[in-house]
Amino acid sequence: MHYRLTTLPNGLRVITQDMPSVNSATIGAWVDTGSRDELEPEAGASHFLEHLLFKGSENLDAHQIAEGFDAIGARHNAFTSKEYTVFWAKVRDADLGFAVEVLSEMLQRPAFRQDEIDSERHVVLEEINMNEDDPTDVAHELFIRRLWSDHPLAPPILGTRDSINAMTRDVITEYWRRRYTPHTVVISAAGRIDHDALVEQVGDRFGDWEGADTTRVTTAAPDSQGVSLRSKDTEQAHLVLGALGLKRSDDRRWAADVADHVFGGGMSSRLFREVREQRGLAYAVHSFRLPFLETGGNAIYVGTTPSQAPEVLKLIRAECDKLATQGLTPEELTRAKGHVKGSLALSLEDSNSRMSRLGRNELVGMTHYSVDEVVEKIEAVPAQDTTDAAAAMYSGPFVLGAVGPFEPGELESYVA
Prior knowledge:
Helices cover 44% and strands 18% of the residues. By secondary structure, the chain is of the alpha+beta class.
């Protein structure tokens, strides 16, 4: 087996992959909750809570957590997405037990001291301010909000200034009680791992944790089209153009990955070649996918001089139409398959990447394919499947998020 999985009696899952050639291990606690699970008064609670769990528990304060990891030379951090929150640490294999101890304190016994909530509130507000000052982030956020409008995926992960300022200790505590339970957590680890020993350590620290299972509301994606503009006097226009795409479990995802690499995944991609190399219209241009539980999105980001935005958008739309109708050439198909296989192999040389792959797949219910199985699936993708996947992703209707010195209505024709 390329992984081992054990479910504790309380519902918490432990999944590992041994890498006997290394002397370290990366462990992560994957929590099945994100911004899409928040009620209206809780907007931004998932991310706020991520910050607060590092402020300490009933038994460990923030300094003890930070100094403890520093004393063993560990790397540790956390992140929040729309569908999950992750706390992780990379340590020497001999120090894995310490990481389990700290994670167990953070997840099960957060202190939620009022003074620390108030101080961390300012930190989160500064993070919101920082993102608002980055036009690239703003363009992406405008795109996502327009693409999903009133869908649970639309609100920003950080919340808003109003929601963070209004959030009380009771709201945060209730969100933690509802969403943080042994049924919603996966402990994932990769590196020099003794699975049975880790299961015993996790059982000792997490075995008495109680809590009910949770549910997630799924909602049909809206039919979105149009432009969301932040009119601003900038030297560069930031544009994110895209449409609804494939959900996470769609069988066409293998073909979509291949097609997306050809389209805008690297320096040999069509977008990079046409927009940057041949015409010099942008420094940065790339495509990306946003797969979620019941829906997905795909988009192209480009930063260009405002006066060149019409030409760039026309060119991108033409490339979308070409990809959706004509698909890939045999040479592009071969090259893209080689890239996907090679990048997968290189990424899995790192224990952090392996831990993330294991934890994410287990949490969201995806099959744990081995590298050989993924390679087989990529190799088996026929050219017609890439055309079909591209048509599903880039046939519109289109949405545009834009930041730049544009007038209202000026960019509407490029999403028609």
